[in-house]
Specification:
Blueprint lengths: L1 E3 L6 E3 L1 H12 L5 H8 L3 H14 L17 H13 L5 H10 L7 H11 L3 E2 L11 H10 L4 E2 L1
Antiparallel strand pairs: 1-2, 3-4
Helix pairs in contact: 1-2, 1-3, 2-3, 5-6
Length: 152
């Protein structure tokens, strides 16, 4: 089975095909070119799969695209969660400053915001912590003094 990933010449072969082709080559069914022709694949692909099987013991395809290891580890996500549980009125800025103050790999404000919002499922409360004033000047001052609180 072949999956066309981008509409072009790039294809990812099913793991079953990879395993059968590697086993055929390793059992001496022929050269890379001969075995590749039997399975309808490229000899360079077969060569890569045989090497990967020999070195890693698997022929599973690697992740495609620009996968990056998360900056904030699961351990550090739990640490942030404990901070917010202990002090629910922490702002994203305060979490960001506390996180980057420690011995953690530095993370941007948007990364910390995504961790709090998506990974930890905290949401910002929409309700104000202070009642707005009737006058425009006092209302803007009250808005500056309100703090976002987290809720699940």
């Amino acid at each position: 089975m072949i999956f066309d990933l981008d509409g072009g010449d790039s294809v990812a072969h099913h793991v079953d095909v990879r395993i059968r082709a590697v086993n055929a080559y390793n059992s001496g069914a022929g050269s890379y070119t001969k075995v590749a022709a039997l399975f309808g694949i490229g000899s360079a692909s077969l060569k890569r799969w045989v090497r990967k099987h020999r070195e890693q013991g698997t022929v599973e395809p690697e992740r495609l695209g620009g996968y990056r290891k998360p900056i904030v580890s699961e351990k550090n996500k739990r640490k942030i969660e404990r901070w917010i549980d202990k002090q629910p009125d922490l702002t994203i800025v305060e979490v960001f400053l506390r996180y980057n103050k420690g011995s953690n790999p530095p993370a941007s404000m948007s990364t910390i915001g995504r961790v709090v919002r998506d990974a930890l499922a905290f949401r910002r409360k929409k309700k104000r912590t202070a009642q707005p004033s009737k006058t425009k000047k006092a209302r803007s001052k009250a808005e500056k003094n309100t703090r976002s609180e987290f809720a699940r």
